[in-house]
Amino acid sequence: MDLIQLKVKKDASLIKYVKIIREFDGSLSMGDIKQKIENCDFAVEFDLENHDVLEELNDIDRKREFRGMIDKLRMAGADVSVYNNGDEVSLEFLDNRLETLDEIDRQTDTNI
User: Rounded to whole angstroms, how far apart are CA atoms 46 and 3?
Assistant: First the structure.
């Protein structure tokens, strides 16, 4: 499992951040996200190795959507910390990991 987790520092724009996270993952309740941010817990988690055939058929790249959500949070003023399996990492680490996964996908597609 390659679990990426985000912590978002609470500030006056908390509701903006909750809405952005809900846009990415509608299964999370606004109350749960708000409580996690207030308690300095992981506000959202995403398994980079998760593979959904239906999303693939519909040309949806959830990994890129997750990365885009981080950018939206940061543009809204959020102080976002990124974790990989519980260890804090940089955005550069995440970007490199995403690129590696994309490269593996491209190689797999050409070998089929």
Answer: 6
